[in-house]
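Fold it.
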Amino acid sequence: MAFLTRLGALLRSAWPWLRIPFWLVMGLLFGFLLPYTLILNARLQDRFNDLVFAVPTRVYARPLLLEPGRAMTPAALELELTFAGYTPEGGGKVQGSYSKNGSRFVIASHGYSGPDGGELPHRIRVALGNGQVTSVVDDTNNKEIKSIHLDPARIATFYGAAQEERRIVRLDNVPPLLVQGLQAVEDRDFKNHIGLDFSAIARASFANLRAGHTVQGGSTLTQQLVRNLFLDRSQNMLRKVNEAILSLLMEAHYPKSRILEAYVNEVFLGQQGNQAVHGFAAGAEFFFGRRLEDLRPQEIALLIGLVKGPSYYDPRRYPDRALARRNLVLQQFNETGLLDDAKMKAAQASPLGIAANAQLPHNRFPAFMQLVRAQITADFDEAALRDGSFSVFTTLDPAAQLYTEQAILTTTKALGKRGAAAQAAAVVTDTADGSVLAMVGSREPGEQGFNRALDARRPIGSLVKPLVYLVALAQPSKWSLASIVDDSPINMRQPDGTPWTPQNDDRQIHGQVPMLDALVHSWNLATVNLGMQVGVAKIKGFLESFGLQNVNPSPSLLLGAVDLSPFQVAQLYEYIAADGHALPLVAVRGVVDAKGQTIKRYQVKGGEGEYQTATRLTTWAMQQVVNSGTAAAIGNSGLSWLHAAGKTGTSDSQRDSWFAGFTGEHLAVVWMGRDDNKPTGLYGATGSMRIWQELFRKLPTRPLSPTLGEGLEMAFVDPQSGKRTDPSCEGARQFPFASGYVPESEEGCFWQRIKGIFGSGDAEPAPAVPSNPTD
């Protein structure tokens, strides 16, 4: 009591001197510091309460279907797995890994959720043989699996102005070693302090004073998070005061678990171009090409080590620094009991293990992504795609895309000067449902800018001919592949009054020829004469039924005087490849929101099928183009087993080289030409067709059936008269006909010989076709 009395007397005597400082402090406290703290508190709560990290929309390839009988090669499967982020490390025992033994694979999948359902994680054994999957077996119970999908590769991200790559994880899904190791290295007293660790600050200050420069930091994880979320990197007193106040407020408002989860997802770990890498999950993909859950202790240690200085310890630029930092972190793991001696030494002895090709998913396939964006923006605006945390599942087939890019590079290089001056574009689709599996808009893979596959409209040349013949064959009472057409000179005036005198590429006149031969050898004069009889307006209308506009109304249309993009050509040829079903070409399968709910599904609804008999006749004729016509190089090569149907195309003066061809599973349309529209010196068969061949040497696919389709029947015909004849007659050839439309009038061998003696008055037989036809 006496002490209090003496203290009161002392204060009363000192008050005259303390009064002014006291009121100054009170004024500062209540007039500035308290309101300022309230302002910071409001800012903190607004930011942190709404801290749902803006995850940009992710874009995925199609899930890989594995089932017995599906076309697949070991090289293609390994390419698919690698592109989807699978690694041989783990040997198929941990998720996201695989092992390979010849044509046998063990794959541990991640599982996924998509618009068509999804798959749980599985460990499977896949056996391949004869270019297809022979078996799929569940490795855990040894039971055969009818079909299974592997999780799709992420191929792109829809970004806004801030190019920050995040892959959000919840704290429960973070490896325990990372959670505990982060605290052991960066903030050992995290669970106990109030946002500021005064003992750590004192230790760091003493160490720095003794060293004469900064050697140790005393900031907590909370302070680091505050800096990342609210503050700049300046070093001044006001920033330090703000950091301290915000850290105290954050600890007062939020539990440690939420602060730690925010830190795990927010921490800056590196830079890829103009993309900032935020969060340990994104860092795992960026440096190791794997998911955070699959990382080993030494990899977790490296990511934690990078927190101190992502640029200084960048393992790609400064591997020695990164290795030393990682091993120091591993030692700290050992000191805090997280790793025993043996595990620490094994981890320290391991290499950095940075994946050479690991990178953040970015718009690797700009041409394909342009199509995706065009098809999806009808339902989602840019803001929704940028900030909606959506997952867009596309139709892209990584193997088809990468093999197409490689085929273009290989072929253009092999063509020398002609290839060096030319550009190229290609579209690959699924013949069954119109899915766009690959799109290349430039000879340089990944080149941003002009997308020639979508936007370059060039004359298609002879690619129009199968469509001309299809329209004719849709009238089976008038036309068949055995019908005689006139390959003779043409001299006419077009609607604009200009004269038009087309010629055959071989500069020959072939006279009266079967329609089949005219298409197989791409004879211009026969095609024009046929098209004029069928009606240019009818052919124009057929093309416009596919959505084409301003189709050339003149007879030159019959020889391909219509400017189309490779994508538009693919739409036309998809009709033939899909057996007469009009299928829209789609690049998007569905959209899933952040909760895994499907909010949009894009389903292809094909028509019932039109002119299927005519389409099957056209397909058979196009197979003969590959067997013995302008695309005979395919039939004479190791690809003859595909029984492919195809057509070459060359525009005037060899400015554009085209090829369109399909198997039982894939359609590919390829264009080559120069951006300045100068001649390339390439025909369809010497340019684009070579790219097509290079693609299908690697792409797993099913062959096209060489047998007649339903509704067709074969019959022997005299090719000079188009009439039915006996198989034993000289020159008799088999042609397919629409059932019920086989010519009834037969011409026996006797009358054929009589005509041979006295002359029939018919045109002379066609001369031999040049040995190297081009178009």
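The longest helix spans residues 2-49.
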